[in-house]
Amino acid sequence: MYKEMNLKEVLIRFKPFYKQYWKQFVIVGIGMLLASGGTSASAYMIKPILDQIFIDKKETMLYFAPFLFFLIYFLKNAGSYLQTYYISYIGTDILRILRSKVLKNILRLDMDFFKRHRSGELISRCTNDIGALQNVVSSVIPDFLTQLITAIGLLGVAVSQSPRLAFFALIIFPITIIPLFYLVKKLKLYARNIQEKNSDLLSRLGEIFSNIELVKANNAQEKERQKFDQENKSFCKIILKSTRINALTSPMMEVIGSIGVAVMIIVGGHEAIKGNVTVGSFFAFISALFWSYTPIKRLSNLYGGLQGAIAASERTFYLLDLEPEIKGGDKELKSIKNIQFKKVEFAYDNSSKKVLNGIDFEFSKGETLALVGMSGGGKSSIINLLMYFYEKNKGEILFNDVDIHHFNIESLRDKIGLVTQNIYLFNDSFAENVAYSEDLDEERVIEALKLANAYEFVESMGGIYAEIKEHGKNLSGGQKQRIAIARALYKNPDLLIFDEATSALDNESEKAIMKTIENLKKERLILMIAHRLSTVENADKIVVIDKGQVLAIGKDEELLKTCELYRKFKNKEKEMKA
Ligand SMILES: Nc1ncnc2c1ncn2[C@@H]1O[C@H](COP(=O)(O)OP(=O)(O)OP(=O)(O)O)[C@@H](O)[C@H]1O
């Protein structure tokens, strides 16, 4: 699904982000040089201390050396501080930008994308994956660079003390690296699996909590826990596998490395006995070699950590690169006067199963159009196409005689107010919920609430600035629906769409809202879907949809005469009422 990347590709992708931080990078560079140089300088100091103080017994060195030691350690640690803080600053800030870019791009994507990905998975991508990158950018990469410079510096000291001994060391050194390659490959694979399992885990939790009523009503707590446990177990299993490999790297390298150091003691000891190197040089050499072992070992561990970042980068850049298929055009939709469907065909997911198969209808400003028909007939799919959530496969959807694909998507959706069965409320005040995407205007909020027959109950709950808690859990189904209707009305759209929007209302409220809708229609187009035919019998046009096709179009009394399916629906409703 996402393109595999190597470290170089990941670093290249980060390049545009790095540019603005050049000043901080200069400070980090100075810090790194000081920190790494300090370690090498301490190793280098061993030779003059041993040779001049202990062997040549020079007293001046006795006073000079401790001062130099303090200075070296001061600079080394000041460098370490500068490097740690500024690299963390760069990392944190880059990831703040990246997180925001990822969300911006995700929000641009087609509705289809959101149907294919579970929300838990997307949350995990925006938090865990980017969190993994943060850890790496602000700690692993700088640590990696410091350790690398330190190791090079120390090896330089070793070479300067005795090139002959260093030559032996350099033969042994690569042997310790070989097993690393195998381990690192494994670590990358595990890192990718860990991130996938983690997002599975979050998705499952998200599903449990958002369906909590269903879970409790069916006493499915135990079943859900068992399903969660399975995911939880496989998540832990993969973490342990990765930890095992990670934990193995360092000891393995140390054991192999100790053989190398043992050989160096024999060879170096011989050289010292023969007088080819001074005692100071020998100790400086061995110290540099010993000390270089710590950064090399750390490097191997950090390289393992980098694999996690590469896997996280693959997933993050995949999201950042995704393009919506529905792009729309440049034309601004200023107002809607007329809407026409001409032989529209549509299938979800490019499948061969056509959900709409040649839909034709038309309606204009001042008219109410109702879509009725059997469940699964394709009514909501028509609305999905009108909102441009999906692209039709064939035919034309015309707004004022111009096809939908010419219009800028934002300008199109600005002109449409959509109220669906699913009500979305935010933990915010009534006023904020009604004004939602637009600026809050108190008078307009009150007017919209009054039109939606909701002002009275909002007043009784503390007024328009009272908070809606837990996504509307303190409201009844009908109350929530009235807030959603007020939100659609606040936008003052040209086209109002009600998809089963009055189904949760009692008869009184429904009648009141239908009256409002009737008053609103003069300046607008109204599209309604309703299972209760009584709701739509006053519509100017009723379109009977069956199996993705238009069976008949007409007013209530016409359809009662001409359309058998409509008659059947109407009779069924009468029987139910009786
Ligand atoms: N996102 C989707 N992906 C794939 N198929 C879908 C999707 N949404 C709906 N369908 C299918 O499209 C067909 C038409 O569904 P649609 O929701 O448009 O019907 P409807 O007339 O609005 O039904 P209802 O009255 O029950 O809401 C159904 O067979 C449904 O299974």
Automatic annotation (TrEMBL):
| Residue spans crossing the bilayer | 21-46, 61-79, 140-159, 165-184, 247-267, 273-293
- Domain annotation ABC transmembrane type-1: ranges: 26-308
Q: Which residues form the ABC transporter domain?
A: 339-572
> What Pfam families has UniProt attached to this entry?
ABC_membrane (PF00664), ABC_tran (PF00005)
Among InterPro entries, the record links this protein to: AAA+_ATPase (IPR003593), ABC1_TM_dom (IPR011527), ABC1_TM_sf (IPR036640), ABC_transporter-like_ATP-bd (IPR003439), ABC_transporter-like_CS (IPR017871), P-loop_NTPase (IPR027417), Type_1_exporter (IPR039421)
Which compartment or compartments is the protein found in?
Cell membrane
Q: State the SUPFAM superfamilies in the record.
A: ABC transporter transmembrane region, P-loop containing nucleoside triphosphate hydrolases
Keywords attached to this Swiss-Prot or TrEMBL record, sorted alphabetically, are: ATP-binding, Membrane, Nucleotide-binding, Transmembrane, Transmembrane helix
Membrane topology note: Multi-pass membrane protein
Top-level lineage group: Bacteria
The name this protein carries in UniProt is: ABC transporter permease
Q: Which species does the entry assign this protein to?
A: Campylobacter taeniopygiae
